[in-house]
């Protein structure tokens, strides 16, 4: 996952598998942001931007990347430190299922269905 934080002027990657060339990705995102700003006649000073690469907790298999990704997003958007591990994944999956179930019980958040 990559995060471009416009307020803090940071570009960060989060990789639970630890296999990406993260620095390369950050540099490409900074170049893309520079080009987008130029296209819209906005100023962009790449020296003001901080690049950071994170592999806060590595997953131990090839199937839990979605859980890690969702938790990275939740932690980042909530301003919470990433503090979970592979050990927590079964409980986190149960929590996610419960959230989805509760959402459905509330009527799906305004999603209409047609009766057959």
Can you put this structure into words, describing what you see?
The protein has helices at residues 22-39, 65-78, 89-105, and strands at residues 2-5, 10-14, 50-54. The chain is an alpha+beta fold. Strands 1-2-3 form a three-stranded mixed β-sheet, covered by helices on one side. Strand 2, helix 1 and strand 3 (50-54) form a beta-alpha-beta unit. It is globular and about 45 Å long. The mean pLDDT is 83.
Strand order of the largest sheet: 1-2-3
Number of helices in the DSSP assignment: 3
| Poorly predicted spans | none
Mean pLDDT, nearest integer? 83
Determine the strand fraction and express it as a percent band: 5-15%
User: What order do the SSEs take from the amino end to the carboxyl end, as H and E?
Assistant: EEHEHH
Number-wise, the strands total 3
Shape: globular
The helix content is 40-55%
Secondary-structure content class: alpha+beta
Kindly report how far apart the N and C termini lie.
40 Å
Taking all Cα atoms into account, the compactness measure Rg is 18 Å
Give a quick account of the main beta sheet: strands, pairing sense, barrel closure. Answer: 3 strands, mixed
What keywords describe this structure?
116 residues, 12% strand, three-stranded mixed sheet, alpha+beta
